[in-house]
Design goal:
- This protein is mostly helical.
- It contains four helices and no strands.
- Helix 1 crosses helix 3.
- Helices cover about 65% and strands about 0% of the residues.
- The model has no long low-confidence stretch (mean pLDDT about 80).
- The chain has one domain.
- The structure holds calcium ion (2 copies).
- The site of one calcium ion (CA) has 7 residues, from loops.
- The site of one calcium ion has 7 residues, from loops.
Length: about 100
């Protein structure tokens, strides 16, 4: 049970952190990027991200992390995801949060 809780916290932190991170020294690029991320999470475009919309995004993120689809995220799956994510982030220009 504790393991599942930790995984849920991880997923929510990933989803939430990406959405609500503050713009850093990259200024406008980060602001635009965060606005795009917010719009993506605001599925019905009403200007707010509801709990249901937030959870739906977290579930999508969980599915990406759970590469073998067994309903659990192993440490190896998490590491693989972060390595893939790190590679993508490094290719993007106008990165945020010092990445
Ligand atoms: Ca909404
Ligand atoms: Ca898995």
């Amino acid at each position: 049970m504790k393991r599942i809780f930790l995984l849920v916290v991880l997923v929510l932190a990933v989803a939430g952190g990406a959405t609500f991170a503050m713009a850093d020294s990259k200024g406008e690029d980060c602001h635009k990027r965060h606005s795009k991320m917010f719009e993506k999470k605001d599925a019905n475009s009403d200007g707010v991200v509801s709990k249901a919309e937030f959870i739906a995004q977290a579930e999508k993120k969980f599915a990406k992390l759970d590469s073998n689809g067994n309903g659990e995220i192993s440490e190896d799956e998490a590491k693989s995801y972060w390595e893939m994510k790190k590679g993508k982030d490094e290719k993007k220009s106008g990165q945020c949060n010092g990445k």
